[in-house]
Known about the structure:
Shape: globular
Number of strands: 7
Helix content: 25-40%
Oligomer: single chain
Order of helices and strands: HHEHEHEEHEHHHEHHE
Strand order of the largest sheet: 3-2-1-4-5-7-6
CATH superfamily: Vaccinia Virus protein VP39
Distance between the termini: 33 Å
Structural class: alpha/beta
CATH topology: Rossmann fold
Radius of gyration: 17 Å
Amino acid sequence: MKAEDLKLIVKEKYGEIAHQSKQFNEASCCGSTGCCDTVDYAVFADDYKDLEGYNSDADLGLGCGLPTQYAGISKGNAVLDLGSGAGNDCFVARSLVGEEGHVTGLDFTDAMLAKARENAKKLNFSNVEFVKGDIEEMPLKDSNFDVVVSNCVLNLVPNKEKAFAQIHRVLKSGGHFSISDVVLEGELPLNLKNAAEMYAGCVSGAIQKNDYLKVITDTGFKKVEVKKEKLISIPDEVLLKYISEEEIAVLKEKGTGIYSITVVGVK
Length: 267
């Protein structure tokens, strides 16, 4: 499938998800309707409820980590959240940058942007803005941010080399990122890897962990480190929608795994 077709699938799916409740999304794989409907959202996401700045209206249950936990965000920082959705990580980041800082959320889904802006208006935040744009071609200035965060989004981006090149471009010299994402250890069966629904559900867009980290270092980032790693388990009844029992057995025998990781790096 072409990159632009995949982007359209993701945009369509997340446009639907923007109108769904967190409770509905919790019963699915990264909120994707018709996909992974028996997977508990807790398999992917960490709990935000105890974090300062958490806003339940902005939490759609779509993450696979807590990127702000390792982001080293300071008062007065300019922070960029990639794939900001309804604003969940932006509002947590805003609590860390304070009144003197600034938080920008970037998303390419109109419904998500509308929801995020509505949430920011309710909270009366003047230093949080949401911008429409593609992560592979960000409509943002060079060397403009101290910190970039992202939560379970870059795996959905077809060209990860372009994405990390853009992150490098918009970060200030000495700036850094903290990104939670989904990666693989071992090869997925082709039918599972190419399933459009699984792609929008955060699985098939994932690449090998070593390849993912190589993209980051090849981009020029230093001090690249995986801060957190968690195995994601997809039940057999879900896998059987895409692959056979024999393929599932081989998958387990080879020890192939899907992981959520939180990785950091410095420009």
